[in-house]
# Entry
Amino acid sequence: MSNDNILTFHGHVGTSVELREGAAVPWVLFRVASTPRQYDQATRTWRDLETTWMSVKAWRVLAQNAAESLTIGDPVVVIGKLRTESWTSKDGEPRESTVLEATLIAHDLGRGVTTFRRVDRQPAVVTSSDGTVEALAELEGQQVQTPAA
Amino acid sequence: MSNDNILTFHGHVGTSVELREGAAVPWVLFRVASTPRQYDQATRTWRDLETTWMSVKAWRVLAQNAAESLTIGDPVVVIGKLRTESWTSKDGEPRESTVLEATLIAHDLGRGVTTFRRVDRQPAVVTSSDGTVEALAELEGQQVQTPAA
Amino acid sequence: MSNDNILTFHGHVGTSVELREGAAVPWVLFRVASTPRQYDQATRTWRDLETTWMSVKAWRVLAQNAAESLTIGDPVVVIGKLRTESWTSKDGEPRESTVLEATLIAHDLGRGVTTFRRVDRQPAVVTSSDGTVEALAELEGQQVQTPAA
Amino acid sequence: MSNDNILTFHGHVGTSVELREGAAVPWVLFRVASTPRQYDQATRTWRDLETTWMSVKAWRVLAQNAAESLTIGDPVVVIGKLRTESWTSKDGEPRESTVLEATLIAHDLGRGVTTFRRVDRQPAVVTSSDGTVEALAELEGQQVQTPAA
# Structure
């Protein structure tokens, strides 16, 4: 089935983007905060709507380049598949999280300028299984940084 | 800012789609269940991944036509803006829900055939304010129907 | 590479949608006309922008259901990959056409109501090679019908 | 109507991205080449499919940042509205071009790393009318550079 649920998500990086290597392939899991703005015809001003937080996951070269390029507060666009993942909290409670499995991550040129550099990556060393559920638990406990507006 | 978070969501209608008229414009709020399938190279079979449930909201003519066209179990595609809405549960607890504000709702021709008919709609009568938070609370309490696979 | 060029195209069916069976799988090739509207703040009226025509291609069950469901003038949405195809005109001239390879085709509930019916399809009989280039040549010669506004 | 035809286009910058200032707002018009790859199960190798060229247009801050950030050969993603524009060639012949009116332009982190820097932009000075048709004519005459694979 090629009918995946594809989301294009615009926001600011809200947690640090660190490469996780204890898995078959290198990967990252981080959060992005999106605060849409709406134009109010009555007052002729823009006002912020509610912030949506999204967990973003990426693998391999995309993960390596994202970890090297992204800093908390950076404006980014992420395109990917919206998925639900089940995991268990430290208290043993079942949890469900929505995760955006990225096929594209990029700095938004609507918010600033970027300098690009090609990188030759070595093929990733295969080690063990995925650790997504541990990382989701960790993100939950973590004090999420407020991105720059 | 035209950089809305746009989601294309494929699934089956999971709750009844009833027109709600006690607001400025007619609207609907219903749930769609999406169960992606993944091909397992090892066993050469398809297997179901976890189901993602999405609350879908629409207004005006789109809401009127959706209410007249959709039945529980129908395969649909929805395109819209992904938004977060805050509301208060019956117990007075604060809640956050993710809502897909639809710009397109349609039956999926990958799953069956459709017959189309144009409809002339009268302009909606304006009455009072939106009742989204009441409807989100109602959907939560409601026993969600399992859509046909 | 999963980074396909994905287009969501809204318009009206502009040529008849007939199943073509002389190939490995049943398929369709038809044209859709899209005329966006823009709100003119000065005159407070909507005005039509230029029409974009798109060649849409689909295969297998999606093609079979589209052929059975769609009539010239129907409002549709098509999601797919934007591709360039080279072919040769009757005069022997090289041509390039942009084709939207559909993963989704559907009637737009923003324009009317639909009735949905599931259909059991027999697996398609494999016969010979694809005939896309012949069909593109045929579409070019054909007097394209103007879709209902 | 919010149902615009939205395209997500991945490719390499194929012409230089220069800011054009003789209009109401600063803008850019440049070409992007997209060459999708397909995995051939039989030979177990990737092969290039036909290249699709797209004219990309942007305005204001996005145009200013794109002109400052992009170099021929850079891997980019562009999201925008697909539009048809009519213009007249130097020989007086009527022409139609497909143009992608960008809402997002970004370097692709799947292909390398980026460094991001915020920029304070002065409001653009309004001068005269748009010069898109002249620029489309110019792009046609221009020897298009082959982007790095």
